[in-house]
Amino acid sequence: MFETLDPLLHAQLRLSVMSLLVSVEQADFVYIKKETDATAGNLSVQLDKLSNAGYIEIVKGFRGKKPNTSCRITKSGIEAFEKYVNAISNYINIKK
Amino acid sequence: MEKEEQNLSNEESLKLITAMINKAKGNIQDSYIFFLIWGWLVLLACLLHYGLMKFTTVEHPEMAWFILIIGFFLSGYFGYKIGKSTSVKTYSDSIHRNIWIAFMVGYFILLFFIKEINYNINPLIMLMAGGSTYLSGITIKFRPLIYGGIILWIAAIIAFLVPGDIQLLTSAGGILLGYLIPGYILKYKNGRNV
After folding, report:
1. Within the 4-43 window of chain B, which residues sit less than 8 Å (CB to CB) from chain A?
2. A50 — contact with chain B (CB < 8 Å)?
3. Which site in B10, B44, B56, B164 is 20 to 30 Å from A48, CA atoms measured?
4. What was the pLDDT predicted at A68?
């Protein structure tokens, strides 16, 4: 039986963000924007969706005098990501 | 079309995940600065100790090692500066930073009790420098540092076996080969200037 793929993760930009955040402790908005090649507006919207689902934590603060937004993945984000990777692997294995 | 609405095939998903994870892995931070700070200070301490011992009548030439105190302030300053300017914090960065903090505490304790070990600080500094360099190399997967750590351990063994003045020159050589050269290679790889 196929497991349904998490629609929140099965989207290019959100999956890119989650893959990046699962590998680091925390990353700034600017870093994520650079690595994912996304526009600031689009990235903001997608980060909010992930944050509302409890997959990531967004911390807004200041670095010196400049406002700074940094993100880190949450425990439930890691679990959802692992579940997604397992489901994808199953699909690919069955297809083979 | 917005990026998030593009359809992904399962294979594309997996490729995307792998590519993004590899991007985060390739991140080498500005840690070379700590090798340069400590490398130059220890080298200077060795040579100063040697010079004071050979060419002056100073009672405790070992006191030359107290110039390492400068390293605590410089490391603190650069550590703070790098932390403030870094836009991403990887797990290996955290491990790496804590390795340095742990060994700095070790250097500090050694300096504090230098009299208790009869001022014979040299081989112990080499031993600890070897440990921190080796672990740094493993953490950021950088071979010159791994080899540097091994060179420093060899320098420590030699330093335990030879008389005081030769010990200092052995340590100076060990620091040059095991600390400074890998530090400069790391700096070159990072494409930055101090």
Report:
1. 4-6, 8, 10-11, 13-14, 16-17, 19-21, 23-25, 27
2. no
3. B10
4. 87
ipTM above 0.90, yes or no: no
Domain regions of chain A by residue span:
7-91
Say if the Cβ atoms of B84 and A88 lie within 8 Å. Answer: no
Q: What pLDDT score does A78 carry?
A: 94
* 0.80 surpassed by pTM: no
Q: Are B192 and B30 in contact (CB under 8 A)?
A: yes
Task: Give chain A positions within 8 Å (CB) of B17.
Answer: 15, 19, 85
- Give the pLDDT score at B194: 40
Length of chain B: 194
Q: Which helix (H) or strand (E) holds A86?
A: helix A75-95
Contact in structure between B136 and B148 (CB atoms under 8 Å): no
> Whole-angstrom Cα distance, residue B172 to residue B149?
14
- Contact assessment for residue A84 and residue A5, using Cβ atoms and an 8 Å cutoff: yes
What CATH architecture is A7-91?
Answer: Orthogonal Bundle (1.10)
Which residue from B31, B65, B50, B54 is spatially nearest to B141, judged by alpha carbons? B31
Which DSSP string corresponds to B55-116? H---S-GGGGGGGHHHHHHHHHHHHHHHHHH-SEEEHHHHHHHHHHHHHHHHHHHHHHTTTT
Residue B49: CB atoms within 10 Å = 27
CB contact under 8 A, A25 and B23: no
A78 to chain B, any CB pair closer than 8 A? The answer is: no
> Is B37 in contact with B79 (CB distance < 8 Å)?
no
